[in-house]
Amino acid sequence: MYFLPVSIAIFFLFLFLVPFFIFMLPAVAFAKLGLSPFAGLIFFWVCLMGSLINIPVYRRELDTYCETDDVADVFNRFFGIRIPKFQQQIISLNLGGAILPGLLSMFLLSKVNLHAVIPATIITSVFSYSLSKPVKGVGIVIPAFIPPIIAAVAALIFAQKGNAPAVAYISGVLGTLIGADLLRLHQLKKFGLSFLSIGGAGVFDGIFIVGIISVLLA
Fold first, then answer.
1. Is 35 helix (H, G, I), strand (E, B) or coil?
2. Which single residue of 26, 47, 183, 191 has CA 20 to 30 Å from 202?
3. CB neighbour list of residue 170: distance below 8 Å, 6 or more residues apart
4. For strand 195-198 and strand 88-94, is the pairing parallel, antiparallel, or unpaired?
5. How many CB atoms lie within 10 A of CB 114?
6. Where are the domains of the chain?
7. Which of 121, 126, 123, 92 is nearest to 105 (CA)?
8. pLDDT for the residue 134
9. CB of 204 closer than 8 Å to CB of 97
10. How confident is the model at residue 74 (pLDDT cuts 50, 70, 90)?
């Protein structure tokens, strides 16, 4: 009967420390990639905020009008605002889910052996493709925690011990982008969506988490 106050104290202490651990995980992960803890935290939060920014890279005219998405339906149903239909499809790159992780991957490529990166990226791409699926009105959906684990295991197999974190990050980011986004882009085009984001929507979760989990596991 006298153990209950201690248990409650430990429970609240754990709740208090959870944000601290979450805040420190990016610093530890990116420190293993050669960045300073402060730079790692900045990069982590810039990627998170960058997920809101999509940069158009390609436009094409559609033969038919695009179907309205869920956001347009909500505005029409609750606010009486009818968003006009578009006959143009825009493909963009997500800043936080494609551009910034891609740039860091290109930077890390100069520090690792390509003979380790190539097979690890191919394996992660294959698994990402097989696990992802296009969902109408949403885009590509993929389990967020599987690609980081696959990338980390592949990096441990093919890379030297000191290079495993960098290989895990590169293969995790590029493998997810290639397998879940680029190889399925032609399927999304057939959906008639007016806006497609590479590295955004459902894929962003996988790429965002892969930068933390895969490096820590490696």
1. coil
2. 26
3. 105, 108, 109, 112, 117, 120, 121
4. parallel
5. 11
6. 54-217
7. 121
8. 77
9. yes
10. low
Is this model's pTM higher than 0.90 or not?
no
Contact 180, 116 (CB under 8 A): no
| Lowest mean per-residue pLDDT among 21-30, 39-48, 139-148 | 21-30
The whole-angstrom separation of Cα 188 and Cα 203 is 13
Up-side HSE of residue 79: CA atoms within 13 Å toward CB? 8
Side chain identity at 81, as an amino acid letter?
I
| Residue 178 pLDDT level (bands cut at 50, 70, 90) | very high
Please name every residue paired with 94 in a beta bridge, in sequence order, or none if there are none.
54
Please return the burial class of 16, using the count of CB atoms within 10 Å of its CB with bins 0-12, 13-18 and 19+: exposed
Q: Tell me the pLDDT tens digit for each residue of 109-145.
A: 988 888 999 999 999 999 999 988 877 666 677 887 8
Give the C-alpha separation, 203 to 101, whole Å.
Answer: 13
